[in-house]
Amino acid sequence: MLVLICGLPATGKSTIARKLAKKINAVILRTDKIRKEIFPSPTYTEEEKALVYKITFLIAKYLLNAKVNVIIDGTFYKRDLRKEIYKIGEQTKTKLFIIECVAPEEIIKARMYRRRLRKSLSDANFEVYKKIKKQFEPIHREHLVIDTRKPIKENMEEIYRFLAYS
Question: Using a CB cutoff of 8 Å and minimum separation of 24, what contacts does 150-154 make?
Answer without folding.
Answer: 152/15, 152/16, 152/19
